[in-house]
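Quick one - first record:
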Amino acid sequence: MDFPRALRRCRTRRHLSQLDLALRAGTTQRYLSFIESGRSVPGRNMVVRLAESLELPLRERNELLLAAGYAPAYPESSLDDPALAPVRTALDHILRGHLPYPALVVDRAGDLIAANTAFDLITEGAAAELVGPGANIYRLALHPHGLAPRIGNLAEWGQHILARLGHQEDLHAELAGYVAHLEPSAAPLGFAVPLHLRSSYGELRLMTTVTTFATAVDVTLAELKLEAFLPADPATAAALLAAAGPMASAAAGQAPENTRSALTAP
C-alpha cells in the first residue's frame, strides 16, 4: 500500500480531520494535505510523529513506516528472547498471584500463551484441541465443543467476544455462526457483562479485566494481554476457592508452578 493512501485510511478510521491530525503532529494542514496527495514526501521523523499522533498500535506504526519506505522503528522480539526474560518472570508471577481466580495471557490473535491452574475450571469438558498453549481462546469460548454448552448467557457473552475481533475477519465470521441464531436477554446487564458458566463446582458468575504493558516499545510485548477472571458474587468466590485446593494438588510437580505456560526460559 502506498503511504498517502495508508495515512489517509488511518486518519479517517479515527475520525480525524486533516487539521486535527496536523495540530496533534505539530505541522500544518497544508503540509499534511500535500503528504496525503503525494505532492510531498515526509521524512522518517514526521512519519513517526504522525503515527504517534494517530495513536496507532506499534505494529501499525511499523507498517506505516514501511509504506513510506523507511525501516521499522519498533522491534518485534520472540517471547523466548533473553531480553524478555523479565517479562516472562513478571507474567508467571502475576498468574500465580491471581490464584485462586483464573487468569491467562494471550497474544494479538487471542492465542493462549500461558494460564494459571485455576483456568482449568473454566476449560473443563472442552475438546483437547481447543485447550492449551497456542489454542485460540475466542474459539474456545464460542465453539460447540468448547465452553458454549456451559455458558448460560451465550448470546450476550458471544456478542462481547465478537466485538473484540474487528481485525480478524475470518475468525469473526466463523464464530458469528455459532451465536447468530441467539437473541440477547431483555434482562438488564448491570454494570458489566458477566460470564455465567456452569462448572463442577456450581454455576460461576465471572467478570473479566484486561491488562497490557502500557510502556511497551516492543511489538510482541505491546500486543500481549493478561485477562483475569474475578468473581461477580460471593458464591463464585467460594467455588473458586474450593476448587483451588484440588487443582493445586493436581499441578504439583509441573513447571512453572501453578501455571500452564508456553513461556520458556532462554
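second record:
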Amino acid sequence: MTPVIDIRDLHVRFGEVEAVAGIDLAADSGRATALLGRNGAGKSTTMKVLAGVVPPTSGTVLVAGTDVAADPLAVKRTVGYCPDVGGLVPRATPWEHLQLTARLRRMPEWETRGRDLLERFGLGDVAHRVVGGFSHGMSRRLSVVLAALHEPAVLLLDEPFDGVDPIGVEATLEVVADARARGACILLSTHLRDLALEACASAIVLRGGSSVAEMDAVELTSETYRALLD
C-alpha cells in the first residue's frame, strides 16, 4: 500500500544553511508517527514542507498522492497543520479563528464541532477573547483545535505539547486517537519522547537534518533515544 506521506531524499536549504539533509520518511493512514529530535534537527522544516508552506530544495515529497512542489495548494486542502509557532491573528478571538478556518475550508456546518473542540481544550470560556493576551500554552491548544476542525485526512502537529497544561495534553491525545480511528495519517513532531510515544505507534528520529532511525514506539527507550541523539 502506498504511504499517505512519502518523502524521498528531501533537502531544504536556506541560503548556505542546509536545514534538511536527505530525509526519507513514510507514514500510513490510520497510524500516528512521531518525528523526534533535538531543536534544529529539521523537524519543523520537514513539517512546513509537508504543509505546503516551504518548498523543497530537492527530493520528492508526496502527500496523499500529490506532489508538494507541483501543487502546494492541493496539499493545503488535504492537511490540517498546527505550526510550531505563530499562525494566529492577535486581534481575533478563537471563535473568529474558527469562523475563518471554516470559511476557507468551505465547511457549512462547523459550529457544533468547533464548540466541542474549544470545550475539550479548556478554551470555551475564552472563545470571544482576543488571542493577543493568551499564554503560549493557550495559543498552542488553539492551534491544535484549528488544525483538527475539518477532520483532515492528514494531520500535522508540530510541537503541540510545548508549554501545554495537562488538560491540553489530554485533549491533544484525544484528537490524535480520534483522527487515527477515522483512518487519518498523523505526523506529530516533538522533542518530548514520553508524550510522543504515548500518542504514536512508530517513531522517526532526526539528527542534523537527517533521519537516523525508524522503529516502533515501544522500542524507543530513553537510553536508545539518547544514544541516537549523541
